[in-house]
Write a structure and sequence with these properties.
Blueprint: H1 2-29, E1 40-47, E2 50-56, E3 63-71, E4 77-83, E5 88-92, E6 100-108, E7 117-121, H2 127-134, E8 136-140, E9 143-149, E10 156-166, E11 169-179, E12 183-188, E13 199-207, E14 216-221, E15 227-228, E16 242-243, E17 246-247, E18 275-276, E19 293-311, E20 332-341, E21 346-354, H3 363-372, E22 374-377, E23 389-399, H4 401-404, E24 411-412, E25 414-421
Antiparallel strand pairs: 1-2, 2-5, 3-4, 3-6, 6-7, 8-9, 9-12, 10-11, 10-13, 13-14, 15-25, 16-17, 18-24, 19-22, 19-23, 19-25, 20-21, 20-23
Length: about 425
């Protein structure tokens, strides 16, 4: 019986292969010059920046697809196609809510097109118009960011034109961000500007169909200021010493040392400068488990915190030439920040942050990003300072492994806090 089944499967495969080859041969050598009939009973539903056509496909055994084509005001033509199995076709790319003439035709396997059906459509507002309406600008620490919505998930470019006057010199720049996400946030960073140096921002949005919006004046914004908190006065309790009922973590396995998380030196693969929990990070006792583990710091004075930058362990002797353990391995992928409230004598959660794994970057670019560290705001949606605190707690929640589900985040290289001294 087993032999018969295998023979039948093999025979079916040979027939299928022969049929595919025959079909390919027929497509390549067909001398059919008879075009198919037109689609019939054509109607449309307007979409944002587009239209959805409904129709009946012609009766033609060689029918391959139904296609639509239009030409925009700049003379650019765009084509869209749907298989003959379906009875609708979506087209996009209209930049205005005006009438457009669209050619709808059937295409057979020999490449013959039917006579077009000309349909005049009037779309709803364009995708870029909707993105433009959703733009939201906010100042941040030495930076600003823009949020937008793109419910159609179309590929767009966001041009951020910004200018400011510094030391009497007018400066102008443009940052361009490409995206197809439903919601997105992008930063313009590393702007060393004071409270008396506002930034003027205008934004344009374009799509892949040649449409671009008029500049949207977002007005002037004043950036927030902070500084890196001096680490020389920091104090770390000993492992398993409790502050506010939370034990200090263990990080001194193998080459690792807990104090190396705040010594100002990042691990670059060859210098072995990191902490390592050895899988017993909570207290140093294996019975207490690993994650979550904590690094508790006495800042030496009262500070209002604004940001944190974390550096991962690289741990690879190829230096800048390979990714090593950046964004994987035993590094921490999700963490939380707490501050200690003197009034309640309790820890207060400020934020949880997930370190995103880079997508679409070369290995060298990933290494560069890893060396720069991962920056997170204490209040990412509305950047501001925390209330004054002397004690801050970094709580490592998950590693990168298993899509951020594993408790194997044993390592990190450096923690750096930004803010200002309370009362300053």
């Amino acid at each position: 019986m087993k032999i018969t089944i295998n023979f039948l499967i093999l025979a079916a495969f040979v027939i299928l292969l022969f049929s595919c080859e025959e079909e390919t041969m027929r497509l390549a050598t067909s001398d059919d010059n008879t075009p198919p009939a037109q689609p019939t009973q054509v109607s449309y539903t307007p979409l944002y920046g587009g239209a959805r056509f409904h129709y009946t496909v012609p009766e033609d055994e060689d029918l391959l697809s139904v296609e639509a084509r239009y030409t925009n005001k700049d003379g650019q033509s765009f084509s869209f196609a749907a298989s003959y199995f379906v009875d609708s076709l979506d087209i996009y790319g209209f930049g205005d809510t005006i009438d457009y003439n669209v050619e709808l035709y059937a295409l057979d396997r020999a490449g013959n097109r039917s006579e077009p059906v000309i349909v005049t459509v009037k779309p709803l507002e364009s995708a870029i118009a909707r993105v433009t309406k959703s733009l939201n600008l906010k100042p941040a620490f030495g930076a600003f960011f823009i949020d937008w919505e793109n419910e159609l998930k179309q590929s767009i470019n966001v041009y951020v034109d910004f200018s400011y006057t510094q030391n009497g010199e007018q400066k102008q720049f443009t940052s361009v961000f490409s995206s197809n996400l439903e919601t997105d946030r992008r930063y313009v960073e590393d702007l060393n500007l004071g409270q008396d140096e506002p930034v003027n921002v205008e934004i344009r949005v374009s799509d892949i169909y040649g449409n671009i919006s008029d500049p949207v004046d977002m007005g002037d914004i004043t950036l927030l200021e902070d500084t890196q908190i001096d680490k020389s006065n920091w104090f770390l309790p000993l492992t398993n010493d409790s502050i506010g009922g939370i034990p200090q973590g263990f990080g001194s396995n193998s080459e690792g040392r807990l104090v190396l998380a705040v010594d100002g030196v990042i691990d670059e693969g060859t210098n072995l400068n990191y902490i390592h929990t050895g899988g017993r990070g909570r207290t140093g006792n294996s019975a207490d488990g690993n994650m979550p583990w904590n690094i508790i710091i006495d800042l030496g004075d009262y500070y209002e915190l604004s940001r944190i930058v974390t550096h991962q362990r690289h741990m690879d002797f190829c230096g800048d030439f390979c990714q090593g353990q950046y964004y994987r391995g035993e590094n921490v992928g999700i963490y939380e920040i707490y501050i200690f409230d003197d009034t309640t004598q309790e820890w207060e959660l400020v934020t949880q942050h997930k370190i995103e794994v880079p997508v679409g970057l070369s290995e060298l670019e990933i290494v560069k990003q890893g060396k720069e560290g991962d920056m997170a705001y204490m209040f990412p949606d509305d950047p501001q300072y925390t209330k004054p605190t002397r004690w801050v707690r970094y709580r490592a929640v998950k590693g990168f492994g298993g899509n951020y589900t594993l408790d194997n985040g044993n390592c990190l290289s450096e923690i750096t806090y930004y803010g200002k001294k309370s009362g300053s």
